[in-house]
Amino acid sequence: MPPVPDPPLTGYVVVDLSSGIAGAYCTKLLADGGARVVKVEAPQGDPLRCWSASGAGAESGPGAGAESGPGADGALFSFLACSKHSVVAEPDADGELVDALLAEADAVIWSRGPGMAERPEFAPAEIRNRHPHLTVTAITPFGLEGPWCDRPATEFTLQAWSGGIVGLGRGAPDRAPVYVGGQVGEYLAGAYASAATLASRMRGGAESIDLSMLETAILGLTYYPVSYFEMLGRPWRDARRLTVPGIARAKDGLVDIGCGTAQQWFDLCAMTGHVEWIDEDSPLSITQQANEKADELYAWVADQTVDEIRDLATAFRIPNAPVANGANVETLDHFVQRGSFLVNPRDGFTQPAPPYRMSPATLRPPTPAPRLGEHTEHYRSLSVPRNSIPGRDSSSTTAGNVPRKRVVPPIPRKDSLPLEGLRVVDMTTFWAGPSCTHLLAMLGADVIHVESTRHPDGTRLIAGIPVTEDQWWERSPIFSGLNTNKRGITLNLQSDTGRDLLKKLIATADVVVENFTPRVLESMGLTYDAVRAVKPDVIMARMPGFGLDGPWRDNPAFAYVIEAAAGISWLTGYPDLNPFEPYSVGDPNAGVHAFNAILLALEHRRRTGEGSMVEAAMVDAALNVAAEQVIEYSAYGALLQRAGNRGPTAAPQNLYLTNEIDEFGRDDCWVAIAVATDAHWAGLCQALGRPGWAMVDELATAPGRRAHHDLIDRHLAAWCAERTGDQIVTALWDNGVPVAKVMQPHRQTEIPQLASRGFFEYVQHPVNPTTRHSTLPFRSSRGPDRVHTAPAPLLGEHNREVLAELGVTDDELGRLEVDGVIGTAPAR
Fold first, then answer.
1. Are 578 and 247 in contact (CB under 8 A)?
2. Which of 311, 531, 631, 733 makes a 20 to 30 Å CA pair with 601?
3. pLDDT tens, residue by residue, 673-689
4. Signal sequence span per UniProt (predicted)?
5. Is position 274 within any domain?
6. Which residue range is the domain that position 296 belongs to?
7. Backbone phi, psi, residue 521, to 5°
8. Which backbone phi and psi does 333 adopt, to 5 degrees?
9. Which of 713, 737, 761 is the last residue of a domain?
């Protein structure tokens, strides 16, 4: 039996100076990849050690599977800190120790928080000045520079600023809109930070990376709203309305059924026995048609069991999923068969398996999270010369429980973009897959997007452009937003000639990415083995919704059913109504996780010469960002619940109406306020003028504020109702309180912080007007100065250019066009 290869990041040393979920999840992904992560903590430890979303953490008594009592850690910390080391450093006394760790490291992950990160000499710029070889990745709410760089924020207020709270119409029209529950923004930021750090490694590191959590929220919670508004002159959605049928109540529970395409709506009509509803010439969108039939659809769902509905929907190829939560998710048959959950190696509760799988490249099996300061004395004992840090030492001996691994030669520093020189065959469609390949393209790879005139990329078809309009298929702002910097070709893969040309293209590629259901490529004979036969060292990244095996593997998957199946939907919405589909997180979250996996596979190839098959299922990525639910239930028996706009991280936390009328003429302007600390509460009291109701002793502590949340809400609602959003934001920010206006997403360009950081760039296009496009959520000291270098390709725009590179002559190109193998317009 051949030996198991070292994980791709073996020998890569990361010092973790972060606190909170975003930094912890970033370094967890790096540790899963094999990196040696040394977590530097203050004597009181990372605040996550004491955290439990249900309040049932280590200090509160025993749970179903987590250790309790003095010195015990919260279960979420135990999950996020798997395979890491812990070093305690006194901020006033241990600067030399931390500098010694940094001198021997490759990267540092930094965020504001207790401990060394509070010291001016350990700010990101100062770390880079003393240790110029490092990649220093900073995770902050708004970025390290710009007019808002020091403003207070929480994930809740960042969701409001991003437009993600109202951007996809989530909520009921007669109530406040609702945020996406479960701290998903923290995990998104962590996944992007990990990807940015790995991409930096691809060009030799030695740079500063400045990641903005506001920008990751925009990319993860909104759907290119600025490009949509500027290109088409209307917002994506201008009102809250239920998705129909969406999440509905069946006889025995909740089920999610969705229609992402017209064909799926037609199939839903047939499935429910209403073929008379099918009207291919209707002037209404499928969403509008479904809303018209809402009562009948809900009645039909209520008369069936969940299993009956799902069996029918699967037969009709309609996206569907059960609505998972912390109590039931690990028992769902698909996840059981796929081994989607693991036992925490230290505390015995249930946690998600890593968000992607690969072979022959391997991930590190999780090892127990460290106790506070468990490795301090070991690291203090190390000598200062380079290669003294475990993970960089060429010795095969061990010190304590810290293994020493073989050193791989470092990557030479290069001045080009991180992925320049890579060629990617992009066989993806809609949002999840193209968002992954878009990251590859924006960081320098030559990405060739393969479509078919029979089946163009689905995002070309969802802009509501009448087919009577000239080149209607080129006018989608969603396609434009996802595909800049790519080249585009068309190939009819139902033909032998098309498949032969695709194989010739793959023979020139480093990476192939696809996100169809597994049966699609298998029916065309394009399995990993077939692709590897063409290019032995190729990396093939497959992004099916539910994975390559298991009973749900062939089910169609859009973001909303992925969110339901993973538990994200369960925490989103009002407590007295069915959950709402976030309708946004599942796709871009899958994209950034797949991007991480591809970078790990590329590192494995650099070390070994081997290609890899990467399986980056959308649902596996979603299970990871929803990890806290199953962890809380299995560790403490606590089932987390949705609570409107309240949440476990702050009290008060809610939305409050201002005295303004919105741009649509409605009394629907809101601010988001989140008091996460006693200092925030003191600031809020000061901003309010220290009213008597707020100065009572019961409100001086977080438990008291949570117990009296209704009272606080009434007073804050009255105060906000007399003021504009700008007045409220100024008053609270001036007193250090996290606050935000609930932005319409197409107004993101009005945020001065985004303008200062150049988050939007104007992109010219041969068919569409010049339009602003979002860029990357991080800035690097090594560039690029401009992200978008070419507009999204026209359908088949680069057929001649790319196929000529494969040796196809002009005469052959003409025959391919006549035969319908290639083309530049959708086939009729």
1. yes
2. 631
3. 999 999 999 999 999 99
4. none
5. yes
6. 259-318
7. -70, -35
8. -55, -40
9. 737
